[in-house]
UniProtKB/TrEMBL annotation, chains A, B:
PANTHER family: IRON (METAL) DEPENDENT REPRESSOR, DTXR FAMILY (PTHR33238), TRANSCRIPTIONAL REGULATOR MNTR (PTHR33238:SF11). Keywords: Activator, Cytoplasm, DNA-binding, Manganese, Metal-binding, Repressor, Transcription, Transcription regulation. Central regulator of manganese homeostasis. InterPro entries: DtxR_MntR_Metal-Reg, Fe_dep_repressor, Fe_dep_repressor_sf, HTH_DTXR, HTH_tscrpt_reg_MntR, Iron_dep_repressor, WH-like_DNA-bd_sf, WH_DNA-bd_sf. The keyword DNA-binding applies. It comes from Paenibacillus plantarum. Mn(2+) 1 binds at D8, E99, E102, H103. PROSITE patterns: HTH_DTXR (PS50944). This is HTH-type transcriptional regulator MntR. Belongs to the DtxR/MntR family. Signal peptide: none annotated. Its main location: cytoplasm. DNA binding is strongly activated by Mn(2+).
Length: 141, 141
DNA sequence: TACTTGGCGTAGCCATTGCTATATTTCCCC
DNA sequence: GGGGAAATATAGCAATGGCTACGCCAAGTA
């Protein structure tokens, strides 16, 4: 079973490969805001657990297991980002919050959040009304 | 700054004192499903950080700082439970999901979720419409 | 008062995951 | 093809927060 930290790395790696075709240690480190030495260490663990195949100094590729997991993680991450954006969370807080919670929600909750997003997408005036509530609450304090 | 684990303990302690008037090591341990020795260790840390005052073998009381924090944590927990309930998450999943995410949300996100709840409270038909979206999405699959 | 027992505390271990400092490899440019 | 800079790897340390094993206190009972 993957720890939250392992999921963070896998997700990042998947995204980098998806966008740039490869995932370098330094890119992963920058994205997760950790030092390169931490990345190397974690990559070795992910290799040992068969999420990827790693060759020292030469790079890595995801195994089918790693790809499948990575895609699920990335989709879930994007969903949660959209959710927080929709309800008005400040952009500066979104990445950190999503990274914190994404590993701890059941698929039931994920599905319900998906539905909630669809609810706001279908009628944009709903988001406007939400913002009105916000303004009223702010005016009270 | 309190770590997630420290928050778990504080919240539990606050709730125990709120409900029973006192918080024994064994009650805390049972509630959090850890061993009593772990509780003692954490209590000492919370004492050192002035969240509570602890006397060996005799018990503990929360400082004003600890009470304030404990109340906030408990309120946050309840808010998140209400949120998941409102969007239709199955009751069996709620407690575990809230336990997982409660320590990882900025107060900005908490406020936005509070607003979202108020939005649904002000007009109950909104929740009905959300459930309609859910049914439509379920029908598609 | 003395004993027993259950609750509590301490010491020390382990895993996780970050860090710094240092070594090694690769790549690019001359 | 060789030298140096950039990238990557390794070693070893620290904090966190569990655990087990064992020692200590104190309340209830005889």
């Amino acid at each position: 079973m993957a720890t939250p930290s392992m999921e963070d790395y896998l997700e990042r790696i998947y995204k980098l490969i998806d966008e740039k075709g490869y995932a370098r240690v330094s890119d992963i480190a920058e994205g997760l805001e950790v030092h390169p030495s931490s990345v190397t260490k974690m990559i070795q663990k992910l290799d040992k657990d068969n999420y990827l195949i790693y060759e020292k100094y030469r790079g890595l590729i995801l195994t089918p297991k790693g790809k499948k997991m990575g895609k699920r993680l990335m989709d879930r991450h994007e969903l949660l980002e959209n959710f927080l954006t929709t309800i008005g969370v400040h952009e500066d807080n979104i990445y950190k919050d999503v990274e914190g919670i994404e590993h701890h929600l059941s698929w039931d909750s994920i599905t319900c959040i998906e539905t909630l997003l669809e609810y706001f997408r279908r009628d944009p005036s709903r988001a406007d009304e939400l913002m009105n509530v916000r303004k009223e609450l702010e005016a009270e304090n």
